Amino acid sequence: MSQRAARKTALATHKKSFILEAAQRVFAEHGLEGATMRAIALEAGYTAGAIYFHYASKEEIYADLLDQSLDRVIAATSSAKGRDARARLRAAALAFFDFYADNPRDLDLGFYLVHGMRPAGLTPKLNRALNDKLLASLAPVASALRELGLDEETARHETASLFGHCVGLLLLRHTRRIRLFDADPRALFATGLDRLVKARA
């Protein structure tokens, strides 16, 4: 690649990062449904035309943000280690919980998509791609469950159950409703994990 091409690529990457940072602020204030390309452009300090050069829609911007977020989750769960399947299950599941507990803006990304009780906004293609990455972030959990002797279907269902438990506790933590129960959400999640592990002993 020539120096000129390299500079052009670096500039485009820099602009996209500005757009994504601006979009995350706009999504935080208005959600995916209330956000507009014009608002994102204004927040980024660009014209709407400059935004459309990089992204065809706000949904594409959202998908790029969530895609990058899920890459970070995958890195966290895939690097979780343990001496055996039980330890790896606990480490991977807690890595998932801890990532979102430590990165509330990433947690927000998962909720911008939801309007009322129904997901809205993404095309089927984008939705499938992001769902695949979410499943990849939970793959170490499912793998450890299979190592513990669960068949494919049961491991998938237990992974879904752990995911639901995790998201519910994260939401309670994020909204501070957990204070109503005078409880530590991470400790509650860890207790649920320990029960699952003991049941498979």
What gross morphology would you assign? elongated
As a percent range, the share of strand residues is under 5%
Poorly predicted parts: none
Topology as a string of helices (H) and strands (E): HHHHHHEEHHH
Tally of domains = 2
Terminal-residue CA separation: 56 Å
- How large is the radius of gyration? 19 Å
Annotation field: number of helices: 9
Let me know the average pLDDT.
89
Secondary-structure map:
Elements: H1 3-34, H2 37-44, H3 48-54, H4 58-78, H5 85-102, H6 104-112, E1 114-115, E2 118-119, H7 124-147, H8 152-175, H9 185-199
Antiparallel strand pairs: 1-2
At a glance:
With 201 residues, this protein is mainly α.
Task: Walk me through what this model shows.
This protein has 201 residues and is an all-alpha fold. The protein folds into 2 domains: 1-55, Orthogonal Bundle (Arc Repressor Mutant, subunit A), CATH 1.10.10; 57-199, Tetracycline Repressor, domain 2, CATH 1.10.357.10. It contains 9 helices and 2 strands. The chain has helices spanning 3-34, 37-44, 48-54, 58-78, 85-102, 104-112, 124-147, 152-175, 185-199, and strands spanning 114-115, 118-119. Strands 1-2 form a two-stranded antiparallel ribbon. α5 (85-102) packs parallel to α8 (152-175) and α5 packs antiparallel against α9 (185-199). It is elongated. The mean pLDDT is 89.
